């Protein structure tokens, strides 16, 4: 057996996919900034480069390190969530950012990763006979719900939903009793309407508008409608690079961040959107493949969790810009403008790569 | 070992479920994208274009209306229009409050401004028709403002508003957002399509707040075509000044050689400048509530009993049907008895024995009662139709009245009763149910003196020409013409129409009510205005080579000879001087 290389062969595949996505993201950003070389575009490039460097750097760390410090990370990020809750700055109407003087950061982004690590850590210690009993699942549910409640208070419905989605799928994977799981899911769905009373007005509006975009065509429904117009007018091959009128003439809201997919869809058409979805699916498949190959329970669960996290981001983002889900502010990994999400997904790639290296050992 | 084995199995199974869910959701995304980008691509492409493309109309200049002597009576004058390009909300509000200090903006302006702002028109019209003071103040400070400009806009201008109000008509702004002047009456309405021209446009691309980004395409407007009308502006003014001394009435002057209308005046007139540009509610109400209906063109849209003018038709019919010869005489004793009722001649003393010429000259009613009885209503109507009564003359004006020729059938359908013999007698002198417009009476004279049944009037220069010839029997014509000349030499109109060049004509006084037996022949000046007869005179001059027809009708003027004929005489004098 050869000694494990820092970057195994399969990593090349991931790197190529990643490179393609970053390229598409760069083109989308360049177009969304009106095809002009701006400071913000340079920042996006710097973020991509820093992200790749971080990814390479973290790859070198043995995954046992993550195993050992999983709870510590969890505690640290949870503490920063509490701090944000107490004195975080208000940006775009929600308290999500922590001002670290040199850059603002969203602890809720990191929470997604640390929750996955903490859950993987917990279940790696659990024997499969124990996993069949409900009482051993109470602690992980706690691990999942505590940050979720804090994030809901920010308020950030999208991220909270993602945490539950990722957490629940990991708990499910780890052998949560099926009967209880199914009853729980069904009762959640039936209790959903009661959650209505806990929502903020703007959230209620978004949901109402989601079900009926014509309710307020110049208000909230405007975003969904304009986004659908942009995507639809792309046709098969798109309007061409830098030719998207909806994004150029500012009919699109948030065209650099949450709606970057719309910009790409308008200019590259169905072909472009299909390529983006296939690339993301390939990444998810890669994550799942690494997870299934891995022998260590911690690494296995972590990779599944990361795969689900990646997919949920892609799904929720595309579904909301195409009008399938209400607009909840979930960015598209690697493509949207913004540092927190870029770093988070670069880190998750490197976690998977280090797992891969470990399992080749 | 066993432990981890079962765990592996279980997690494999559960991972498959999760991966299956991932695939299912991905397929949902792709199907939805297919639905948006392939199935509905055209719909969304259209919506996308609708978002970004605005058409800015460029108004053509409306065609001029020019008189035969070259005077522009309906033209365009330039007014300044204050416009603002779409800009950010802050700049919009600042501009608006700043401009508010310099121009007066009323509620209507406010509604329009916010409406075009909401609809994202690339340009918002702040104010149309700046006053000179506002214009000079604004042009001094224009450089300080962004997105504001002053543009030229044209509004309709009528240089002889009252003289030509019924011929030219008026315009009003179209109801759609273009606000283009559209003809509503007169020549403006009839020739609207050629006067209006074609609207040009600039296709501009705008961004989400409506700001202009670039021009995609543009199409120049085509200005409207000018129209030359047959009316002479000086004659029109002369006729208008003459008539405006009366309360209500109308006048038509025709050129026999080609059917051109040289003058057409209806009193009272209105000012189309007011109606066409920024008409207020109260102004409109005062015009429409006027009991004299100034908007109505009395020469073509209003029909009256033609009165004695109609006797020409009865006479011509009698000659043609060989019921009388010119020498045959009828005794007029001041009335004709039918059953128990006596139908009086206007002259209660009677005219004694009269032949056809005398009867026309003196406008003897009894003579025509007698021959009408012999002709029968249907024969009279047949000849009246030949001379253009009962159908519109086809003049280029809207709302022409076609008058009325009663027949036995018409009466039965209308009233369900049979035709009475006395009605034929009354119709024979142009009273009763017979109705005609002044234009029809004038055209009847035109047909007589042109010797052509197909003579027809026109208002448009080089429009239709009277090419058709349908000659009238010369023998009978000469008899009638001679009699009509005698009217102005020694007959009813001799007092005002005896001239060197020779006028031929016929007076008429059409009754507006039934005359009681004891009232016939009373002095019309003593009768209340509304109950007085309409005074009519239709004449032709000169006697040799007849050239002009003048028809004058003064509503409730009294006698045709005393009121209408003197006016016609003045018009003839002026026509002959030229």
What does this structure look like?
The complex is a heterodimer of chains A (361) and B (578). Chain A has 361 residues and is mostly helical. Chain A has one domain (10-360). Chain A contains 14 helices and 3 strands. Chain A is globular and about 60 Å long. By secondary structure, chain B is of the alpha+beta class. Chain B is built from 21 helices and 19 strands. In chain B, the strands form 6 sheets. In chain B, strands 2, 3, 4, 5 and 10 form a 5-stranded mixed sheet that branches. Chain B has a 5-stranded antiparallel sheet with strand order 12-11-19-18-17, with helices on both faces. Chain B has a 3-stranded antiparallel sheet with strand order 1-8-9. The longest helix of chain B has 38 residues, at 2-39. Chain B is elongated and about 140 Å long. At the A-B interface, helix 5, helix 7, helix 10, helix 11 and helix 12 of A face helix 1 and helix 2 of B.
């Amino acid at each position: 057996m050869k000694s494990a290389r820092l970057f195994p062969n399969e990593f090349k595949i991931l790197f190529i996919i990643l490179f393609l996505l970053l390229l598409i993201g760069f083109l989308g950003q360049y177009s969304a900034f009106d095809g002009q070389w701006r400071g913000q575009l340079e920042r996006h490039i710097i973020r991509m480069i820093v992200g790749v460097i971080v990814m390479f750097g973290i790859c070198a760390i043995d995954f046992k390190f993550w195993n050992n410090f999983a709870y510590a990370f969890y505690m640290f990020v949870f503490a920063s969530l509490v701090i944000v809750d107490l004195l975080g700055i208000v940006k775009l109407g929600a308290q999500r950012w922590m001002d670290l003087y040199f850059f603002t950061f969203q602890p809720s982004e990191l929470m997604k990763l640390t929750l996955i690590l903490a859950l993987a850590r917990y279940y790696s210690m659990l024997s499969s006979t124990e996993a069949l009993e409900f009482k051993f699942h109470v602690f992980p549910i706690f691990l999942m719900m505590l940050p979720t409640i804090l994030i809901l208070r920010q308020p950030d419905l999208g991220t909270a939903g993602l945490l539950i989605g990722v957490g629940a799928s990991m708990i499910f994977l780890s052998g949560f009793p099926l009967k209880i799981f199914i009853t729980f899911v069904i009762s959640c769905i039936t209790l959903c309407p009661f959650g209505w009373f806990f929502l903020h007005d703007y959230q209620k509006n978004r949901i109402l508008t989601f079900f009926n975009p014509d309710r307020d065509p110049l208000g909230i429904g405007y975003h969904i409608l304009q986004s659908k117009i942009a995507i639809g007018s792309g046709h098969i091959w798109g309007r061409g690079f830098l030719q998207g009128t909806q994004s150029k003439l500012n009919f699109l809201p948030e065209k650099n961040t949450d709606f970057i997919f719309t910009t790409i869809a308008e200019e590259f058409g169905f072909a472009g959107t299909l390529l983006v979805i296939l690339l993301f699916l390939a990444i998810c498949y890669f994550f799942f493949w690494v997870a299934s190959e891995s022998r260590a329970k911690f690494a296995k669960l972590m990779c599944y969790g990361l795969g689900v996290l990646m997919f949920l981001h892609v799904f929720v983002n595309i579904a909301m810009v195409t009008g399938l889900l209400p607009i909840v502010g979930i960015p598209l990994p690697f493509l949207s403008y913004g540092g927190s999400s870029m770093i988070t997904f670069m880190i998750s790639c490197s976690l998977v790569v280090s797992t891969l290296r470990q399992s080749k050992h | 070992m066993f432990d981890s084995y079962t765990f592996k199995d279980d997690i494999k199974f559960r991972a498959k479920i999760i991966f299956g869910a991932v695939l299912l959701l991905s397929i949902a995304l792709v199907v939805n994208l297919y639905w948006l980008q392939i199935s509905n691509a055209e719909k969304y492409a259209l919506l996308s274009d609708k978002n970004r493309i605005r058409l800015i109309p460029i108004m053509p200049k409306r065609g001029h209306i020019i008189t035969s002597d070259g005077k522009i009576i309906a033209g365009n004058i330039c007014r300044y229009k204050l416009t603002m390009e779409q800009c950010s909300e802050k700049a919009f509000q600042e501009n608006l409050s700043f401009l508010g200090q310099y121009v007066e903006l009323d509620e209507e302006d406010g509604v329009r401004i916010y409406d075009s702002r909401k609809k994202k028109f690339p340009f918002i019209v702040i104010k149309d028709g700046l006053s000179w003071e506002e214009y000079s103040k604004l042009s001094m400070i224009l450089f300080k403002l962004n997105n504001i400009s002053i543009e030229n806009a044209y509004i309709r201008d009528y240089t002889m508003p009252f003289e030509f109000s019924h011929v030219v008509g008026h315009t009003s702004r179209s109801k759609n957002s273009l606000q283009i002047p559209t003809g509503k009456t007169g020549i403006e309405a009839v020739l609207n399509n050629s006067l209006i021209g074609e609207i040009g446009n600039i296709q501009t691309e705008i961004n989400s707040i409506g700001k202009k980004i670039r021009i995609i395409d543009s199409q120049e407007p085509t200005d409207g075509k000018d129209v030359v009308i047959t009316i002479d502006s000086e004659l029109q003014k002369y006729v208008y000044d003459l008539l405006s001394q009366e309360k209500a009435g109308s006048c038509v002057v025709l050129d026999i050689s080609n059917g051109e209308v040289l003058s057409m005046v209806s009193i009272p007139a209105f000012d189309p400048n007011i109606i066409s540009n920024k008409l207020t509610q109260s102004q409109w109400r005062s015009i429409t509530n006027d009991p004299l209906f100034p908007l109505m063109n009395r020469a073509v849209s209003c029909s009256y009993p033609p009165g004695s003018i109609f006797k020409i038709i009865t006479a011509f019919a009698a000659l043609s049907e060989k019921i009388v010869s010119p020498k045959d005489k009828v005794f007029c004793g001041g009335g004709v008895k039918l059953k128990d009722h006596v139908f009086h001649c206007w002259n209660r003393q009677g005219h004694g024995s009269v032949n056809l010429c005398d009867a026309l000259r003196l406008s003897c009613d009894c003579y025509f009662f007698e021959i009408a009885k012999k002709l029968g209503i249907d024969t009279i109507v047949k000849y009246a139709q030949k001379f253009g009564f009962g159908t519109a003359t086809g003049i280029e004006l809207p709302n022409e009245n076609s008058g009325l020729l009663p027949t036995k059938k018409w009466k039965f359908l209308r009233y369900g009763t049979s035709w009475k013999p006395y009605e034929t007698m009354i119709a024979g002198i142009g009273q009763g149910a017979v109705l005609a417009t002044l234009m029809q009476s004038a055209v009847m004279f035109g047909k007589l003196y042109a010797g052509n049944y197909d003579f027809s009037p026109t208002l448009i220069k080089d429009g239709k020409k009277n090419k058709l010839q349908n000659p009238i029997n010369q023998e009978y014509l000469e008899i009638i013409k001679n009699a009509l000349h005698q009217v102005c030499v020694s007959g009813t109109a001799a007092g005002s129409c005896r001239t060197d060049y020779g006028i031929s004509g016929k007076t008429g006084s059409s009754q507006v009510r039934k005359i009681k037996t004891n009232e016939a022949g009373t002095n019309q000046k003593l009768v209340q205005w509304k109950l007085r007869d309409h005074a009519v005179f239709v004449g032709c001059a000169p006697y040799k080579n007849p050239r002009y027809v003048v028809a004058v009708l003064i509503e409730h003027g009294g006698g045709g000879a005393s009121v209408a004929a003197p006016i016609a005489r003045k018009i003839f004098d002026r026509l002959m001087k030229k």
